[in-house]
Amino acid sequence: MIHPHITDALKVPDLVRLTDGLVLLRFESMKIYSALAAVRHLLERGTIRPGQTLIDSSSGIYAYALALACHRYGMRCHIVASATVDATTRAQLEILGATVEQVSPSRDLKLDQELRVRRVREVLASHPDRHWMRQYHDDVHYLGYHEVADRISATLPTAGLTVVGGVGSGASTGGLVERLRATDPSVRLVGVQPFGSVTFGSQDHHDPEAIIAGIGSSIVFDNVRHHLYDAVHWLDFGHAMSGTVALLRDHAVFAGLSTGAGYLAATYEARRHPDRLHLVIGADTGHRYVERVFARHAEALDPAALKPAEVRAPEEMSMPWSRMAWRRTGRPADGKVRAA
């Protein structure tokens, strides 16, 4: 097949068998599916027009995905980037034609996200003709993952399937599982979070090395549908790094930090539920993490010796790794996460 645009080649994930009970859904850059479908849908609906500037905040892979979608559909792109966006990604964004603003470095992920959102609002105030994509809140970002779910259904038996992935904005894990459960409600969903994220109540735990901002949040994301999740894992940087290094060492898969965190969580879930097939979402490659993760491979712990603390409520969690049965409980009306 000759693809009409590079996005058609980049968006399609590979299914890689890791063990009998573990399969990796490996993306070059996962959010390309989401951004393409969202921009296409908004154009077809008339919400945006050709040539208009689309703006959003991003900690990495969504920025790249939106820039590619704008390139494909003839749109302009403005990214307010996290301090975690690396020089390689920024260079690609700029060459693709995106305007890139990067907030000042901060070890506080909450401040990083608040600064980005504040800057987006400032830009919109002076340029009201720009469209805010709102990847964290607009459920148009669910649409692209329906196509991925259909590919999974055509390849894997959904009976006895558990999906494991970083929660992030909620669109990837949510979009996949909502579609899969339309034909098989027994599909389980396990979310992975860094400590410090408000999404499932770990905001009181500070991990000084936390750099996996893409799978957690310091602000409430409307796209996270809490009632979809069966269990949640919280991991610190050291455990996520150990899973990432182990994935490369044991399976030759060079993937990002959120994938390594998901791999560690899925390995544990597979031991608990050996009768089920566990599908790990691999959101991106490891190129952004060479210096911060892979160069420190000698520090990685042996995953076989690691296990989470099982907790019954978010307030019981402890670092470096905790797990809680979420049991498809919704987010409370007041936004405060409590025990299921």
Verbal overview:
The protein is an alpha/beta fold. The chain is built from 9 helices and 12 strands. The chain has an 8-stranded mixed beta sheet, with helices on both faces. Strands 5-4-3-6 form a 4-stranded parallel beta sheet, sandwiched between helices. Strand 1 and strand 2 form a beta hairpin. The mean pLDDT is 92.
User: Strand-and-helix sequence, N→C?
Assistant: HEEHEHEHEHEHEHEEHHEEE
Radius of gyration: 19 Å
Main sheet specs: 8 strands, mixed
Helix content: 25-40%
Unreliable stretches (pLDDT < 50, length at least 5) are none
Topology:
Elements lengths: L5 H5 L3 E6 L2 E5 L4 H15 L7 E6 L2 H13 L2 E6 L5 H9 L3 E4 L6 H18 L4 E2 L10 H13 L5 E6 L4 H11 L6 E7 L36 E5 L1 H15 L5 H16 L4 E6 L26 E3 L9 E5 L15
Parallel strand pairs: 2-10, 3-4, 3-6, 4-5, 7-8, 7-10, 8-9, 11-12
Antiparallel strand pairs: 1-2, 9-12
Entry summary:
With 340 residues, the chain is of the alpha/beta class. It has 9 helices and 12 strands.
List descriptors.
alpha/beta, 340 residues, four-stranded parallel sheet, 12 strands
